[in-house]
Amino acid sequence: MLSGREMTRLFVRTFRLAMAAGAAATMIVGAAGTAASQESTGNTHTEKWTALHDGPQQYPEIHIDWDVPIQMSDGVVLKANVYRPVDGSGSIVEQPLPTIVNLTPYTKLLTNLVNSALSIPGLQPLAMELARRTNLSGTPISGFGDLLHLLDGGTVRTVLGIDDNLIRSGYNLVVADVRGTGFSQGSWETLGVREQLDTHEVINWAAAQPWSNGDIAMSGGSYAGINQLRAAENAPSALKAIFPVEPGSDLMRDVVAPGGGVGTTFLPLWLSNVNQLKLLPDIQSMFNGTFDWKWFHERMADPSTNVDLLAQALLTPSLDDIPPALQAALDAESPFRQGILGRPERITVPTFVYGGWHDIFANSATKLYNAIPLPPGKKQLVVGDTYHANPGAGTGYGVAPPRLDVMQRVWFDKWLKGIDNGISDFGPINLWEQGGGWITMAQFPQHEVNHRRVYLSAAPSGSTDDSLHDGSLTNVKPTDQATLTVAPGLTTICSRDTAQGSAGITAVLDVCAKDSRIAERNGLTFTSAEVTEPTVISGPINVHLNTIHDASDGYWSVTVNDVTPEGASIVLSTGQLTSSMRTVDESKSVRSANGDYTAPYNPITIDSLRPVVPGKPTTLDIAVIPTQAVLQPGHRLRVDVFAGNSPKALAFRPLLNNTKMKPQHLRLDPAAPSFVNLPTNRPVD
Q: What number of other Cβ atoms are within 10 A of residue 489's Cβ?
């Protein structure tokens, strides 16, 4: 059996061979095509801050204390790796330094293995250069190149939370396994009250250590990013700044069951990963006589946290048979629901958020930024054209924002070391404008836009032969009536929805992730005329549908697309809704000046269910994730309407059974029109 350090050495050797093979393959790709032009064009911040991060640091080496026990107030022991800089004489720096805390459910063993591989001399610059030189534009797998650019976007160092250059610049780092995961004792509570208390106690522990000066920041992505937001909502006095990458805030509406559609692609992948990783034992302790049997018994008692809840959501046949766990998931006041609901309006510490337009948490990125009650400068937002798997891709060159690890360094230097480096004047909002490029904004949505109705019409647009029905979008209310039918199907397997739900795994196929024409073969399309001027879309979108069902429930999915002159239908944003979950909480919803919803808020609870009467009109307001895009002259706007978006999501099983998978109907009626409430800078027609 191998010790933890031997496992690390073996992993490093294997990773080195893999990278060598990857380098050869990438060089072949680069030789076959034209290297991407990604040289800096004078972005002063990017050049200056990157030189600071990548150049020589104050300290040459790093010391690691492995599996340091941190006892919580209830007696449970968390395990943490503590990273501290080492000076030129080989001594651990004793001067108290600011300290960064990262809490992860993905086991610190894994993060250390990846960090060890990237620490091989010359390997990280090689990987970054290979990614920078790879250009798959114009190929059927350009999406693979987009994913590959996580290597030169600072993603790995920032998301995993271990940035060697940051530590060498004069920071300590504490990476702890969340309760019930990794080598930590206890049961995994998935953002519950006790887990959030653990975060506070780890922060206070780190602040009180003799090697810490008492000033704490937090780092990490995804779950670790959510942990940061939770800590900052009720911040300990020691917490001075956070840098969450692709965090969620309202997880029920982000990924668990937005619109009542259970995340059937992402959730199984995620739960499987966390539950398998938490069973990896501390092998070294098995040989030195310190194995934690309490840890072992707790893992055996709960080997598959939340898998039962997912199974209940997908297998419970009727509302009469709902077990307690699923009942709690559909109760807005339950501990489970409260644990996965963020309260960004309570955040009081400087916060820098990175999100992606096609991330699983895309719904939260702009919303939580707007909700944080801090002035610009103390809060910053960057949103890229990325999925959950490749945050930071596209940063670090030209007019783009600096890499994630670079921005994190200057953010922490500002708020923990008091260095006036210009980060307060950066942004405050930097967005990839879909259809355009990087832009800087003072606010989101863009102040020049107004919400306006764009009606769905049965009249043909002449823009596609690939859909069930080719309809139009118009600024004038249609005068003719029509009933269009769409049935559940499987074409959405090949879609950007599937790419988003899989965290970007299927985004390698451009024919699916960057063009909806295959998915549209089982959908209704409504397309505008070509725009004659650049037309900006900025903010939340609502699609209002007048529907009729043949069963006592239904499930609808919509996308808002940019159609190129060549006919490609590129999804900009997406929304979904189970018909019986259409209740809107007016107190938490937003309407535009014209009185229409811009952001309807569905409670997603059993108590709010509203049965559908077969054959009778049912009005739906479907919330579409906020976005920023520009339609270039010659392009068109399109709204796609589907009776499902499997495999990304499915209705809760009792409600899915009620649909009987029957066809659904869209009623286009001048007396009760269907429309999209679109935030634009000019009319689209």
A: 17
